[in-house]
Amino acid sequence: MNPLLARMPHSGVLLLDGGLATELEARGHDLSGHLWSADLLIDAPDAIREVHEAYLDAGSDCVITSSYQATLEGLRARGLDDIDAMLALKRSVALARAACAARKPDALVAASIGPYGAGLADGSEYTGVYPGMSEDTIRRWHAPRWRILASAGADLIACETIPSFPEVRALARLLQETPDVWAWFSFSCADGEGLRDGTPIADCVSHLESVERVAAVGVNCTAPQHVASLLAAARSVTDRPLLAYPNSGEDYDVAAKSWKGASGPDSAADFASLAQDWRAAGASILGGCCRTGPGHIREIVKVVS
């Protein structure tokens, strides 16, 4: 059974967490390396577990692992051999599972798989432009990490911040090749119509309709003001659960490696008030992404309660 539906609270809304890296930085950790928050899988794993616990305390029903940018290539570049790189990926799941055991035993763990662009650490997940990368090449690049995380004990895989249609197709093929594994597909969008590469979101969702064990579809790391229209477009072509965990609305400066510009909502409470629009557009799985924290989740709890 779809693990998201199996654990859906009586309120009809399942709450995700917020930005892992955002909260780690707020706690004083330096995430300027190529591995981003996954650096702490090596240097300070307890810090990751503590942030998972903070989100569970705030009301999250599902925590997402710290493996978003933890690619095998990146882990090797940090000096890990193949076995230690594999163990670091599995550790991301174990830390999330330990946090759930300590705070909320029935909470879900979603193993994060970020896009190819996140592995490059050059901001290309915000463009969806991967020169020279075919669908087959993207699939081959994702496959080793996918297989490790699929066997690491998570409840499902979170295919996150997907910016391009070829990457949607590549990840869908990996899901079809992995019996008994469920995954959600969450797209990164530049506007209220489509993915970063310009593909209409409805086309991506339609493609996934024939793929088994897709637990949910939706958007993340997208400005809050675009979410409702994107969800409406997705709902027009699917009856599957919809999820939404947008960022704060700021823009990521690739050169400076920082978020800049005015955010969308002025406060966590304002962010949560927009969640009512996402709920009205069909989303039953809500949370936050970059530049959101436990306070945002607490405010969403108030809204959905």
Tell me about this structure.
By secondary structure, the chain is α/β, with parallel strands linked by helices. It contains 13 helices and ten strands. It has helices at 3-6, 20-26, 40-43, 45-58, 72-77, 82-103, 116-120, 135-150, 165-176, 201-208, 224-235, 268-280, 294-304, and strands spanning 14-15, 62-64, 108-113, 156-162, 183-187, 214-220, 242-245, 251-253, 258-260, 283-286. The strands form two sheets. Strands 1-10-7-6-5-4-3-2 form an eight-stranded parallel beta sheet. A two-stranded antiparallel sheet has the order 8-9. The longest helix has 22 residues, at 82-103. The radius of gyration is 17 Å and the shape is globular. The model has no long low-confidence stretch (mean pLDDT 94).
Chain-wise SSE layout:
Blueprint lengths: L2 H4 L7 E2 L4 H7 L13 H4 L1 H14 L3 E3 L7 H6 L4 H22 L4 E6 L2 H5 L14 H16 L5 E7 L2 H12 L6 E5 L13 H8 L5 E7 L3 H12 L6 E4 L5 E3 L4 E3 L7 H13 L2 E4 L7 H11 L1
Helix pairs in contact: 4-6, 4-13, 8-9, 10-11, 11-12, 12-13
